[in-house]
Amino acid sequence: MTTPREAWIRNYVDGGFVDPDPERSFENLDPATGQLVARVHEADIALVDRAVRSARRALDNGWADTPVRERAALLRRAADRIEERFEEFVAAEMADTGKPITQARELDVARALTNFRTFADVVAAAGQESFLTDLGGGRQALNYAVRKPLGVIAVIVPWNLPLLLLTWKVAPALACGNAVVVKPSEETPSTATLLAEVLEEVGLPAGVYNVVHGFGGNSAGEFLTDHPDIDGVTFTGSSATGSHVMKTVAPRVRPVSFELGGKNAAVVFDDADIDEALTGLTRSVFANTGQVCLCTERVYVQRSIFDDIAAGLVERAEGLRLGAPADATTTTGPLISKAHREKVRSYFEIAEQAGAKVLTGGGIPDLGPDLAGGSWIEPTLWTGLTNADRAVREEIFGPVAALIPFDTEQEAISLANDTEYGLAAAVWTNDLRRGHRVAQRMRVGISWVNTWFTRELRSPFGGAGLSGIGREGGESSLHFYTEPTNVCVQL
């Protein structure tokens, strides 16, 4: 097994870890310190092919025909085993992402357990459609649907919530009887590898879960999506990469499920509870250092309370504690890498050139010598921008937001919907009718009222426009990870 602090993070294929090739490796660095966590074995095209073939063999050898109750029981055992090894997963997630220990415990690893248990319940309770068709003359036909596994699924996972999003995809895929080949982000390879050991421990057959490490182009990601024996792709990541994956699988007409980028809006009306709105905005703008696809980067505030919201949010931002991930008082970690920090900083310059006023932040904090090598950046808020400015139109994916005033409800709706993205929105108001009315008019996959990041895992989740295609969650996941066959029997 490879724990995050050992020398190697290895690929996992056909029920076993693969000996690493020192000539094909890359570094996994701790974003908080810049120090080496481990070396990662980069899979070549032959190893990816071996992983796909092992997944196909597992399906043919009986995994696809395993009774639903047995698959559900296995998912529950996996959740139990993750719970037993909870702190190992926390340590792995912290080392890969630099996120605070409280978040790793309370969100990332806790949701992994919930994902396995939820989809065990969903698949165990799922029913099938059936119809009686009147054929005339006293005759009838019975039509009923049978769900079969989609097949070998390529699961491509991002670096921002690596374990949470990995289990969000793997749990329903396995529940439905598929076999998977996982390609975690090169930035966060540890928990996908640790999960391989857990699934082996609970009795998952060899080949059902495989992990190949590497990058996108001319590496494991491209080798996997281009493989002719992949039956479907589920991907969370950038819109540009999602578009590329669609082009890759289009000639073979493979189904895809994409949750992509976001430039999410929050709308704060003047009848909102100010303190409640500020608490929600602090989470939605700065959670995980802004590195959540659902985070708010555009905050539209009714003009009569604009100054109060701006001043309050600045105070909340300046009260965040950046520091060592293992410190329980730390609220905010680093960005994932130096390269990503440079991207975020480039938007600081773009915003200021467009006339933005920096209310707080805009630089790199001095956190002392122990953290000097990390990818730290200050939580940042702007005013003075409009929807025409690049910093308001393009996804930044950092702890930053633009505050923009509005006057009327219709103006707020128009501003919020003025984007090519369509992932999430949040509406803050004490007028229940307005809350329903405005939330329903947001062109997004999920629209919150007086809350943010509250999730019901049985409900459909996904994005519109550049934010994705398809829905997962509850029965929506079953629709993607299975192929229904209608059986028609004349009675």
Output the number of helix runs.
15
Cα shape: globular
For the biggest sheet, the summary is: 7 strands, mixed
Span between termini: 56 Å
Low-confidence stretches: 1-5
How many runs of DSSP E, i.e. beta strands?
Answer: 23
Question: How does this structure look, described?
Answer:
By secondary structure, this protein is an alpha/beta fold. It contains 15 helices and 23 strands. Strand 9, helix 6 (190-201) and strand 10 form a beta-alpha-beta unit. Helix 2 (68-84) runs antiparallel to helix 4, helix 4 packs parallel to helix 5 and helix 9 (274-286) crosses helix 10.
Helix and strand topology:
Blueprint: E1 8-9, E2 12-13, E3 16-17, E4 25-29, E5 36-41, H1 45-60, H2 68-84, H3 86-97, H4 101-125, E6 130-136, E7 139-149, E8 152-156, H5 162-175, E9 179-183, H6 190-201, E10 209-211, H7 220-225, E11 232-236, H8 239-249, E12 256-259, E13 264-268, H9 274-286, E14 296-302, H10 306-318, H11 338-353, E15 357-360, E16 380-383, H12 390-393, E17 400-406, H13 409-417, E18 421-422, E19 424-428, H14 432-441, E20 446-449, E21 464-465, E22 468-469, H15 474-481, E23 482-490
Parallel strand pairs: 1-5, 8-9, 8-11, 9-10, 11-12, 13-14, 13-19, 14-17, 16-17, 19-20
Antiparallel strand pairs: 2-3, 4-5, 6-7, 7-23, 12-22, 15-16, 18-21
Helix pairs in contact: 2-4, 3-4, 4-5, 9-10
